Structure formats: C-alpha cells, structure tokens
Amino acid sequence: MGVVRPSTRWFGVGHSTASDAGDACAEATASAIGGRDAAILLVFTSRDQGLAAMAEAARAGVGPNTEVVGCSTFGEFAPSGLVSNGVVAVALGGSGVSVRTAVYRNAAGRQREAGTEVAETVGSTGRPHEVLVMIPDGALGRHHEIIRGAYSIVGAGIPMAGGCAADLSYVKTHQFYGDHSRVDVLSGSVVAALIGSDGPIGVGMAHGWRPYGEPMSLTSSEETRIYEFDHQPALDVYLRRIGRDASIANDVEAMKELTLSYPLGLARRSGEDIRIIYFVDPADRSMVCFADVHQGALAWLMETDRESLINSGQQSCSQAVSSLNGTQPIGVIAFNCGVRKKMLEDGVSEEIARIVEPAQGAPVAGFYSMGEIARIRGARGMHHLTSVSLAFG
After folding, report:
1. Distance (Å, rounded) from C-alpha 70 to C-alpha 58?
2. Whole-angstrom distance, CA of residue 313 vs CA of residue 332
3. For residues 160, 382, 83 and 257, what is the CA-based torsion angle, rounded to 10 degrees?
4. Tens of pLDDT, residues 3-59
C-alpha cells in the first residue's frame, strides 16, 4: 500500500531550463500548479537576466487566489537534483491551506522596522498551524534585526523559516512579489508569507560543523563586529588559533578562503550557531560577521568535512519531517547555504539526494541562499552555512 497523503492539502514542484526566461518560468509554474488553484507560488531562479519576463510568466500562470513570492539564488534544486541556470517553482494549495503575504520595500537601514511591519501586515490565517516564511534581500545585511522585528510581533507561537535572496554576482539580489494582477521584481526588500495549514508544519536545521580547539569568550563586540576574544585583539587570536601569520590579514582573497574554512560557532542550548566572518580590519584587529555576535557569548572556531556537510542536509530534513508527529509529509522546501554548495562542488548531487530521502517520497525543492532563517524557539533565527528544511504534512 502506498503512502497516504492529505486530501485537503497539496504540494507541487516544477522546474525548467528552457533558454527563454519567460518560457522557463511558465513551464515550471504550470508543472508545479498542475491546473489546480494554488494558495501560493514560490519562484526561485539562478538566472540574472529575463527576470521581468519571469515575473510576467508567473503572473499569467496563476489563478486569482494565488500569492507569488520568490527570489534570485546561488542555484536551485528540484526532486531530480540540481537545476543549473534554470527556474524552480513550488506551489501549495488545497482547502486546508491559507496564505497572507507582505513586503517592505527599501529596507536598508530599517531592518527591524521591516521585520516588524511584514509580521504585522500578514496578521493571522486562522489556521491551527502556521509558519512565517521570510525572503529578505541577501545584500541588506543585519538580517538578524529583521528576525527580531518579526519575532516582536509573532512571538514564540509561530516558527519562521526562509532564506536570503542571492545572486552569482554577489552585487545585487532580486525578489518576486505579487499575485495574478501584478508581480514585481524588487531589490532591497523583505518579502514574507504567512502559510497556514490544517496539517502540521515542521522546521529542521543542521550544519555539519564541529568545534575546533578551545572555547573563546567574546569580551568585546558590538552588533556584528568582534573586537576582542579573551581580552585580546580578535584577529590576532583567530590567526594564532589556526597557526597563520598575522601578515595574511592584508591579503583579502586569502583571508576570505580562510574564514570560510574556519567560521565561528556561538554557543546555543541546541548546539553551535554558525557565523561567517566576511571582513577583517588589520588596523584595529577586529572581525565582522554577517549576523549578530553578542558580547559575553562563548565561541569556537569551527571545522567540517565533506561527509558531515552532506549528512547535515539529510539531518535537517529528518528533523522537519519528524516534527510532523507522524503525519505523512506532502512536500518539503529546503533553504541551503550557497557557500556549502561551493565547498561541496561535486558532492552537491549527493547532498540533494540525501535531503530528499527523509521526505518519504514527497517532493522536495529549494534554493541556495545568502543566509538561512530558522526560528523554532527564542528570538534568534538567522543562520549561515546551514541547511534549513520546511516540511508540510
């Protein structure tokens, strides 16, 4: 006997690598929706051209009750594996699903206000199970403030999941937002969708990194900048811990490779939270991370290996499916770090195959992002180098 799926909720995935951007989005959208009335369509693309044509194709391909959100990516994947230079569409619908969306435009410098406003705008679907899916522009920075703003409204009762829009140029990312009447291509915004369901919703996350060496105390830090570890200049302590000469700090590319290989792990009750160091200042010996680093926190240098990275994707999906408490999954959306994709190289296909395994035959699709969102408990929910899974039962 096959797996029994809920009749009031459905989840569809489509993808295309057609040469014309509009045709690719149209094909992916039609495949995901399958002639049904969707509550939401999510569009992910690694193309940097033809975005307006994609937005028009998405608008034309949905019904009057469908909300459209999405973004540019470092790459996306469907149940069949990695999709290169293409489009992936995910649709969710049925009488047991409701969706409310919101957007905050021009969010630079107003990250917390953006998170607060989109959470206020989406309000409630009235369904017994809800998740707030957030897709901020990856180039905004201070994404942790967006999560804090949203948390101040939704509180502990509603989990969050999502990923930051990305782009292969690392310069400008894009987002999709709209419905059957109009879909806009945006930058610098925060897009949010509150998905409500009569069935359970599960969030999972795992990163596959482990502590390297002894712990350090963040004795001086502010926002995303670390000034001191153990009352000593942060950069000096970092380089000494990994046995590198201080002169490497003047080599931008060498430092970039080094900090990706040895990110920081901040102590949390559920394990270490990864922080990528993206800038070092040789003048004041400070280090700047993509997300917040709290003074007084305990931190480690982190390390990983190919097998641990690949396995963590599977662990993330397993956690999300297990959170459905025995209900069969109808589909999973995965938000995965673009740096993980770069590190794995020829191991990406294997990672995707393992992410799919725990879904029990349900479709799995997602994209590689510039930062991952998973808030299951507490106000913190911004992650990096992490695999996040969102499962629907």
Report:
1. 10
2. 12
3. -170
4. 556 779 999 999 999 999 999 999 999 999 999 999 999 999 999 899 999 999 999
Q: Is 237 helix (H, G, I), strand (E, B) or coil?
A: helix
Residue with tokens 């199970």: 129
DSSP 209: -
Please check whether residue 338 is in contact with residue 138, taking contact to mean a CB–CB distance below 8 angstroms.
no
Q: What is the DSSP string of 166-204?
A: --TTSS---EEEEESS-EEEESS-EEEEEEEESS-EEEE
Instruction: Please state, in angstroms and rounded to a whole number, the distance separating the CA atoms of residues 241 and 277.
Output: 15
Provide the whole-model pTM.
0.93
What's the angle, vertex CA 89, arms to CA 88 and CA 91, rounded to 5?
155
For the chain, what is the largest distance between any 2 Cα atoms, rounded to a whole number of angstroms?
67
Apex 260 CA angle, 219 and 250, nearest 5: 75
- Tell me if 188 sits within 8 A of 139, measured CB to CB: yes
3-state secondary structure 138-151: CCCCCHHHHHHHHH
Return d(Cα 32, Cα 183) in angstroms, integer: 18
What is the C-alpha to C-alpha distance for residues 99 and 91, in angstroms, rounded to an integer? 12
Give pLDDT tens digits for 160-188.
Answer: 999 999 987 767 899 999 999 999 999 99
Considering only CA atoms, give the Rg of the chain: 20
Which CA distances in Å does 315 have to 76, 79, 348, 356, 392? 19, 17, 15, 11, 16
Question: In degrees rounded to 5, what are phi and psi of residue 148?
Answer: -60, -40
For the record, the structure tokens of 192 come out as: 């949010």
Spatial separation of the C-alpha atoms in residues 288 and 282, rounded to whole Å: 12
Q: Which residues have CB under 8 Å from 9's CB, separation 6+?
A: 92, 93, 94, 96, 97, 197, 198, 199, 330, 392
CA–CA distance, 345 with 343 (Å, rounded to integer): 6
State residue 76's pLDDT score. Answer: 96
The tokens describing 24, both together, are 């690719």
Domain ranges (residues) in the chain? 10-206+308-392, 210-303
